[in-house]
Request: fold
Amino acid sequence: MRIRSRSLLMIALLGSAAMVTPGAPPAAGAISGKVTYTGTPPKMKPIDMAKEPFCARLHAAAPVLTENAVTGPGNALRWVLVYVSAGDQGSAPSTEPVRLDQRGCQYIPHVLVLQPNQPLDIYNDDSTSHNIHPLAKVNPEWNKSQPVGAPPIHTKWEKPEFIPVKCNVHPWMHGWHLVLATPHYAVSGEDGAFSLQGLPPGKYTITAWQEQFGTQTQDVTISGTETKTIDFVFKATPY
Amino acid sequence: MGKLFAVVLAIITVVSTAIFVTHTWWLPVDISAHGHAIDHQLAETMLSSGVLFVLSQLALAAFVWRFGDRRDGRAVTTFPGGVTPMVVFAVVLVGAEVLALTFVGSKVWAGIYQTPPDPNSLQIDVQSEQFAFYFRYPGPDGKFGATHPELINEASENYFGLDPKNDVSARDDIVVPTLTIPVNRPVALTLRAKDVGHAFYVPELRIQQDFVPGLSIPLHFTATQTGKYEIVCTQLCGLGHYNMRAYIEVLPAAQFEQWLKDKAAQQ
Reply:
């Protein structure tokens, strides 16, 4: 059995080596598509920030809407994480710092994706205190107060986990830290579109995750530099 | 030195009394139907305790003035019978005053807290949590949906733990962070706490009532003036206690009805 595994590994290595042209990036395909819904999603309700006059003033003209199910034209679904949940051929986790802002009593971005040990910088851009509280279960849970003008919090997550994040001072503030082992991920935009780039040929399981509607998976095989198109359709309910 | 102390004592007594008499730092305007009873009770308490305060302080000053610098070595005459009768006299005097105030005050208290609310009161459910208040109106169907603490989810603004999926009466419940009420109509609140003890304090309403986790505490009042006032938590409830506040907005009746309709349409 061990000999067979080694043989397969050698073949895989030789195969991948053969595909690499010196001086050029390795051949890679892509997966792109759109996330939509059928049915009736919950209403995006205006958030009344009356308790925090600073933030209420910022949004006086256009109130912020709830973000647990953000929809767009053509039944598009925003803030859906699409990622390679199986078939990833491994790569070093990114070391580029990612930034989370607390601005206008909102988490920006609402869905923040990062990798284990990737530096995370958390800023308070508001003229009011915040108290960021990631409700982690696999990683250590913490909560930190960040007064007006406080320096950014430099931190990281060590293990993959989907972590809901709330503010202990402003109950409506809610976001996600999605810690993924794979570097192949995307978050759907306002039009529901997503794109996973740089996928070497192979067989992948692609998972789409939406905080209220759960997950969906599809298997995709990439060969050469092709771009495969897949769509995810979530069944939405108003409650 | 004794005479200087007597003068300082007298000045402190006069100045601090003047601050109360001239209402330099006094209560905010009363906007409730029951507030006059509280204010009256407070005035009576201040008057009776104030008279005793002034008399005792001035008596102290007078004695210090008269006997403070005695150098002839003679003992000061003691209270007739010694110290014990003096202490008994003081305890009985102060005790009688406190008992009298309690007796009169309890009638005022019972008139506000022990009477049932008007049957036509506007019913509003209040949820307190670290560090905010939320207010729930029954919506067009007039019925509150049942609450399920395990369903509380701030991300979807389900602060009360409603179950709209299975509970039709919960679907039209209106949940807002500002207590909006009509003027001159009795309001009956039910106070609930999600996590720890909090308090509902509106100085202008002359109301201060604790929230206790696990209890549904009734509270009723009628606001008699329109305007916007602050609701603050007065029970230290955690790190963000300083920021735990909401507003109460008292609207003319017609404006309130319109507000309620607009909110119902958003559900």
